[in-house]
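Record pair follows.
FIRST:
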Amino acid sequence: YSELNKNTLYRDIITVACILSVIDVRADLHDILNFLGKRIENRIVFDSNQAVKQLFNNNTYELSVKSSVFTRFILTDFSTSDYIISILLKIYKYCIDKKKTNPWYNSILHSIDLFSTIQSILPSESRLDSSKTYFDKIRELNNNSQNYHYWLQYAISRTVHDDFIQAELCFKSSYS
């Protein structure tokens, strides 16, 4: 992973693959590159890397991390919250644009809207601040400011982290 982490495109691809693994979504390299808004001219460049072969199952053009333990480690211990949030936002925005053409994207959106998902993806240090940052950044996306589900998930996040005053406001927004 350290070798692949030196290349920003590889690092982004690995991070998206790890996030999709956590939410149990199968994707291929093409899907992952679409989420990132990037292209690789030649797939062989990715396929021929020995570090990639050690980390990923890549038999059927699907890209999945071989170990779920390693997936969690990359996301929660090896990456920063700001970086994970930036990748989540790229996925989120892409799914919003595509959700009307394919329900698969709506399913991904629903998964990354859940507090439990965010809790399992974000690094453990400063998880409260990170989850607040994430929920604040998606508030105006996908009409979330009017979505009871969004406010409920945000309230749960605040409650888990003992921020009860803000949680109460979020619960009220959800109920309204």
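SECOND:
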Amino acid sequence: MLVYLLVFNKQVSYTADFGQTRTIVLPDQSTVVLNANSTLHHNSDWDGGRPREVWLEGEAYFSVQHQANAQTFTVYTQNMAIKVLGTEFNV
């Protein structure tokens, strides 16, 4: 199990440093603007059939692209999970 997690469950991480913002274009063409001192992670193996999931520490503005197959997009934070299909929102 540990080998699977280390080899097959790689994550991509983005960070906005103190006093900066950072704009990220995700593999599905959704965009995220990270606020200062914020971090976003997602699995490196996004494909068309799996739910789109990201993990956020801090604050970010999301512009989520709706997918033809109604694939969900979930943002996980320390206190909640936000599930959408395609919209714009701030967390």
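COMMENT: The helical segments are 2-8.
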